[in-house]
Write a structure and sequence with these properties.
The protein is α/β, with parallel strands linked by helices. It has 2 domains: 1-35; 52-186, Glutaredoxin. The protein has helices spanning 3-33, 83-98, 112-122, 136-140, 168-186, and strands spanning 52-53, 63-64, 73-78, 103-108, 128-132, 148-152, 158-163. Strands 5-4-3-6-7 form a 5-stranded mixed β-sheet. Residues 32-37 have low confidence and may be disordered.
Length: 188
């Protein structure tokens, strides 16, 4: 047997770790740049959880599941310490100024003075806000990162969940078409 024939299998065996690494790197980069941002929620199509949250200290009115019946609405879970919440707040304020859909807020694990300062600085788009100081209500809603935005139909069911901050494109192409569809179905 020639020396060349003996070196062949060793050569390929030596390249195996590099080939495995290259395959894993390719899979990683494919997943990184070809991701689907839509995360399904087991709660879509179900009634909103039962809850009654007090107002943020210094505000007049809290928020409960009863406030969501009879109209299509948006629920936004936010906190003053959440940087992405700060990013989407101008769009929420702009949407609230149109009066096209009521926006309710769940303030998540926030100090009252910080939440009030946040709203004073960036504007308050919310019809009502509930203070979820211990985070229990957010858990019931299936929240696992802030911000999260829900579209609620007129029957009080979760129609859509958007995870993370939304931009103008997501608002106009994803969230508002769902709101309008459910408003049309409800005859609003």
């Amino acid at each position: 047997m020639s020396v060349k024939a003996k070196a062949g299998p060793r050569f390929w065996f030596a390249l195996l770790p590099a080939a495995v690494f290259a395959g894993l790197a390719a899979a990683f980069f494919w997943g990184l740049f070809n991701k689907d941002d839509h995360l399904p929620s087991a709660l879509v199509g179900r009634q909103v959880p039962e809850f009654a949250l007090p107002a943020i200290e210094g505000m007049a009115e809290g928020f409960s599941n009863a406030d969501l019946r009879g109209k299509v609405s948006i629920v936004n879970v936010w906190a003053s310490w959440c940087v992405p919440c700060r990013v989407e707040m101008p769009l929420l304020v702009e949407l609230a100024e149109t009066g096209s859909v009521p926006i309710f807020g769940i303030n998540y694990k926030d100090a009252p003075e910080a939440a009030l300062a946040f709203l004073e600085e960036l504007g308050n788009p919310y019809t009502q806000i509930g203070a979820d100081r211990n985070g229990r209500v957010a858990i019931d809603w299936g929240v696992y990162g802030l911000p999260e935005t829900f579209v609620i139909d007129a029957e009080g069911r979760i129609a859509h969940k958007h995870v993370g901050p939304f931009d103008r494109r997501a608002l106009e192409e994803e969230i508002l078409p769902i709101v309008r569809r459910f408003q049309a179905e409800a005859g609003a």
